[in-house]
């Protein structure tokens, strides 16, 4: 009987440890709904078309399970330095390598997921696992989406990124799975500002669990212009023509 009680206590403590260490990350950074009229975050609701830097898409690990991998995907920033993207070494909870690669394309393709893409002015959606933090009695402090106003040659620091916030999402926007608050899928959508020029941008997903306790994910986003310039010979091209049938504007002026 005593042995059974000890086993029960050990199991309970192990479960509490798992719950305490369950922290989230951006699982998909370009989530597209199968039916926009019926949005949702489970695999039956949509499909992922873009991932964070060096995200292992063929790991065989179930959704929300990469916090048990080595290196794991959740990264908790250290308040002493607030490194914006995990480098595998720093942080209160170091995560997988999400530093900027050179060239950027090294972080995508092959065993890694593809880079996300979007048109300026359009919306894009991000998905993440609840990790036991989308329950009723827990405060929703939100997810912050930070993005520089122009393409950059290196990642901004956290102080700079905080001033580059373009959206705040509800963390607890989820499709609740009964009996499994750990792997419950959540997500949110945000608009890319209209004035973003074409180029590759760094984007940061930053979730505040408790006061000054932050978890981040980083990715590169290929943005195309909202209204790309029409190239010569394409439909809609505006062709400059001489005034009044003249072959030169100077000839037109000479006739006055």
From TrEMBL:
Signal peptide residues on this chain, from the entry's feature table: 1-22
Region spans: Disordered: 66-105, 226-247
Transmembrane segments: none
Keywords from the named record: Signal
Domain of life per record: Eukaryota
Entry keyword annotation includes Signal: yes
Protein name listed in UniProt: Chitin-binding type-4 domain-containing protein
Origin species: Mortierella hygrophila
């Amino acid at each position: 009987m005593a042995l059974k009680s000890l086993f029960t206590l050990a199991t309970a403590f192990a479960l509490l440890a798992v719950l305490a260490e369950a922290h989230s990350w951006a699982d998909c950074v370009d989530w597209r709904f199968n039916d926009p009229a019926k949005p949702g975050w489970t695999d039956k609701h949509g499909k992922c078309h873009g991932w964070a830097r060096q995200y292992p898409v063929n790991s065989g690990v179930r959704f929300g399970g990469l916090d048990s991998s080595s290196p794991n995907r959740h990264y908790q920033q250290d308040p002493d330095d607030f490194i914006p993207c995990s480098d595998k070494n720093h942080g209160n909870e170091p995560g997988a390598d999400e530093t900027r690669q050179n060239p950027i394309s090294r972080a995508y393709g092959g065993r890694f997921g593809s880079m996300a893409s979007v048109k300026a002015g359009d919306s894009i959606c991000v998905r993440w696992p609840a990790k036991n933090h989308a329950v009723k009695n827990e405060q929703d402090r939100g997810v912050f989406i930070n993005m520089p106003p122009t393409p950059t040659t290196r990642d901004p620091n956290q102080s700079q990124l905080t001033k580059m916030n373009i959206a705040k999402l509800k963390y607890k926007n989820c499709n609740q799975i009964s009996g499994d608050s750990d792997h419950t899928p959540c997500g949110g959508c945000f608009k890319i500002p209209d004035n973003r020029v074409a180029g590759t941008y760094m984007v940061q997903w930053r979730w505040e669990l408790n006061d000054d306790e932050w978890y981040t994910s980083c990715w590169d986003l290929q943005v195309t212009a909202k209204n790309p310039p029409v190239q010569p010979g394409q439909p809609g091209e505006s062709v400059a023509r001489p005034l009044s049938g003249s072959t030169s504007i100077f000839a037109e002026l000479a006739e006055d």
